[in-house]
Amino acid sequence: MEISFLVLGVLALTSLAQGQDQSGFLSLDCGLPADASYSDPKTSLYYISDASFINSGVTKSISSEFSTNSIDRPLWYVRSFPKGSRNCYNVTTIADTKYLIKATFMYGNYDNLNQLPVFDLHIGPNKWVTVQILNASTPLVQEIIYDAPLKYTSVCLANKNSGTPFISILELRPLKNTTYVAQSGALALLNKRLDLGSITNQTVRYPDDVYDRLWHPFHLIQLTDISTNLTVDFGSHNDYQPPSIVMRSAVTQANSSNPLLVSIGDSVEYKTYQFYVYMHFAEIEKLEANQSPYSESAITGGNYDFSLFKVGGSTLPPLLNAIEVYYVVELLQSETSQADIDAIMEIKSTYGITRNWQGDPCAPQDYVWDGLSCSYNGTAPPIITSLNLSSSGLTGEIASDIANLKSLKSLDLSNNTLTGPVPDFLSQLASLKVLNMTGNRLTGTVPVDLLKRSQSGLLLLSVDGNPELCASDSCNDNKNKKYVVPVTVSVAALFVIVAAILLAICLKRRKKQAAVAGEMMEAQTRKTSDALESRKRQFTYSEVLEITNNFERVLGRGGFGSVYHGYLDDIEVAVKTVSPSSVQGYKEFQAEVKLLLRVHHKNLTSLVGYCEEANHLVLIYEYMANGDLKHHLSVDDPADILSWEGRLRIALGAAQAEGDSHVTTTVAGTPGYLDPE
């Protein structure tokens, strides 16, 4: 046990009084109907409902047998917590500011059970005190002086399975940071703050005490009460500012030779405690010429008792006006990182989450918020590393505050009704390893960086169940093309113009050569027009089976049917079969055979032969080992994609082939061999 004594004295007497407004005060009447408020007639303190500071609990009124005129109005209601292991008030504080926090409990048989509960009270993530209600009609007040480290402070009631926790009043009062300084932890008031030799014999608080501390009257039979009618002026030299009405009285020994004995508690209950004892002194009697001041006193003590006795040339016995005794509440568990608290509180507000998200998100570990996982490193603030909001009824877009959870490794937003795009800020979460967005209504494309991390195995990405969301590189390629539309359109327009000019030149040249070539073309047409009857390019179905090795390798499928790979005299060919259920039919088959037997051009695939046997209709083409035009226009590898010069040559060649062969778009075909489009 360790006891620290702090002697606080004031020396002057005056007729002036001190005063202060309620600036910075927060007075919550717990259980008061929402939006209700009032000024307490006894204290002039302004009380408001606690409804906006907590999202759990039920409101009750104390039993009528306790609702008498002697019960202060703030005690008429209670908020009880029959559900949940921990229920917390979340109040706004000024970081690094010292506060006096008071919690008051008046059972009043509000639940008609006559069962006095026992439960724990927490300040932030640390236990403050165990609340044990001993009497239904007597209010119990717990006070603590707390240096708020963050801009939010939580006061929580934790269920111990020994009755339902409840609370009547919660109050916060800012103090000067120069007062009540402890080496570590917070200072909880031990029992009561004592007004020794009280003049009023009533509890003193605001407005007499500018900090709204509660001073209880106390008299000792073996001591003598002394007092003055003058006001004690503590001026600016005493930041504690004890109430003048308290400092106007004191106790002293009748016999100046006897010490003034003080005891602070039971040695068994408090054997492990560290105490801070604040004693307030004021010379309230006019000294005669032969008298020396009371301030020449000494304090000695051991265990839980201590004595004040006169020293030096003092002629008067020691006196004591008021005393406060506090014990240290060690705050060993750090609050969650302020940045993470800010972010998760905004997320909670955005989505209206009604889980057990109360108090500190990560601490203590027994009360971590549902859906959160945190990382702990000694005394450093915990940080949020995982957020699971699956099946939480979320709507709207993905909250931008998620980006402020910088250490997030796993994010699960699956099975909600989230809309809008997948935001780029998710790519900025460098630690993110798992991202699940399945089963929503997200639209647009998945950011490129997320796709790259997924493809490289750095991110487990799940986006199924979003019908209007594209999760491939090709989607992002198309998206990127939107930014070069003006350039692309200009190049395409130039391409069309140049192609048209060159086509006109080719057609004009062809017309000049028509006289010479006409006769040759007529002869060729007459020679090949009846090629279906020629056996030179006609194969039997058994030969087709041999060429394709029983249709072993499929190259593709089209309007006719399937295309297979094959070998004809060690030369690769493509074999297209007409399905019996083909919607294009025999007529189109004949049209294509006649056309391709007649047309020979370097820019068109050559027909090697055909098969017309019973229901078996087959066309045999040259095999294009390097793929078709569509492949080279849409290949993923930029190195293999056709240049604009190559595309121009193909366009001119195709136009020339069409002009030479008079191909019409009524011909059916298979992509890669003769595409009518």
Automatic annotation (TrEMBL):
Keywords: ATP-binding, Leucine-rich repeat, Membrane, Nucleotide-binding, Repeat, Signal, Transmembrane, Transmembrane helix. The keyword Calcium does not apply. Its main location: membrane. GO terms for cellular component: membrane. It is found in: Membrane. The keyword S-adenosyl-L-methionine does not apply. PROSITE patterns: PROTEIN_KINASE_ATP, PROTEIN_KINASE_DOM. It comes from the Eukaryota. Residues 1-19 form the signal peptide. Its EC number is 2.7.11.1. GO terms for molecular function: ATP binding; protein kinase activity. The chain crosses the membrane at residues 483-507. It holds the Pfam family PK_Tyr_Ser-Thr. Residues 549-677 form the Protein kinase domain. It catalyses: L-seryl-[protein] + ATP = O-phospho-L-seryl-[protein] + ADP + H(+); L-threonyl-[protein] + ATP = O-phospho-L-threonyl-[protein] + ADP + H(+). InterPro entries: Kinase-like_dom_sf, Leu-rich_rpt, LRR_dom_sf, Malectin-like_Carb-bd_dom, Prot_kinase_dom, Protein_kinase_ATP_BS, Ser-Thr/Tyr_kinase_cat_dom. It is a single-pass membrane protein. ATP binds at residue 576. This is non-specific serine/threonine protein kinase. It comes from Hevea brasiliensis (Para rubber tree).
